[in-house]
């Protein structure tokens, strides 16, 4: 096995621990306007500011960017570290009913693959969430994930294809790989915290810049 292959496998193995770690993401703003449209983010540890100071994660940076651009939008981060598509689906209806978002960002699926859950179930859950959000009048952005190469090329294509297929069939926006430009760098391990599991704060602006072109037209 080459050094680069070992580093890649080590990264994704470590990332599996990150996605499995318990913890709740940033809470809703203390005083939300009842008139400003809401952007709801439902994800796992990649969106939950795991191991970061409050305000350093890409979702918090999104909120800052919206304020800088004077866009009258609120952001609610309902991400939970370790969450799966089934977990997200179970709480999704209540989130939609309570917060009535205008835009929904779904960042789930990585834990499903890392735990070996059936891809058909992941597809069904993400599809149900996408359709529920659309039925509630929200615009949807899917944030895709990829699995490490040791899962096999066929499995990797099938997993990535879940997000692509839903985005195409349901006509919703897609960012194919949230960690593009971070996890696939030659010096990828230098972009993670000392535990070699969680992205450093410097990685999160890269993640936001990757999401922004797909999100901006929905705002």
UniProtKB/TrEMBL annotation:
Its recorded name reads Arylesterase
Q: Which UniProt keywords apply?
A: Signal
Q: Which InterPro entries does the UniProt record give?
A: Ester_Hydrolysis_Enzymes (IPR051532), SGNH_hydro (IPR013830), SGNH_hydro_sf (IPR036514)
CDD domains membership: Lysophospholipase_L1_like
Query: Which organism was this protein described from?
Result: Roseateles oligotrophus
Q: Which Pfam families match?
A: Lipase_GDSL_2
Output the superkingdom of the source species. Answer: Bacteria
* Upper classification of the organism: Bacteria, Pseudomonadati, Pseudomonadota, Betaproteobacteria, Burkholderiales
- Extract the signal peptide range: 1-27
The residues covered by the SGNH hydrolase-type esterase domain are 41-204
């Amino acid at each position: 096995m080459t050094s680069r292959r070992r580093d890649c496998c080590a990264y994704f193995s470590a990332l599996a621990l990150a996605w499995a770690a318990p913890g709740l993401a940033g809470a809703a703003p203390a005083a939300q306007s009842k008139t400003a449209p809401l952007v709801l983010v439902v994800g796992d540890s990649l969106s939950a500011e795991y191991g970061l100071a409050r305000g350093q994660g890409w979702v918090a940076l999104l909120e800052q960017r919206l304020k800088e651009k004077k866009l009258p939008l609120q952001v609610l981060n309902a991400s939970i570290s370790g969450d799966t598509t089934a977990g997200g689906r179970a709480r999704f209806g209540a989130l939609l009913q309570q917060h009535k978002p205008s835009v929904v960002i779904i960042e789930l699926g990585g834990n499903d693959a890392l735990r070996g859950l059936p891809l058909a179930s992941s597809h069904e859950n993400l599809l149900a969430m996408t359709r529920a959000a659309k039925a509630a009048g929200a615009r949807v952005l899917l944030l895709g994930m990829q699995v490490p190469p040791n899962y096999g090329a066929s499995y990797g294509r099938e997993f990535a294809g879940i997000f692509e297929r839903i985005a195409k069939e349901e006509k919703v926006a897609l960012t194919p790989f949230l960690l593009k430009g971070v996890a696939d760098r030659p010096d990828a391990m230098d972009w993670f915290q000392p535990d070699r599991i969680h992205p450093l704060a410097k990685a999160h602006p890269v993640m936001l810049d990757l999401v922004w072109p797909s999100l901006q037209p929905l705002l």
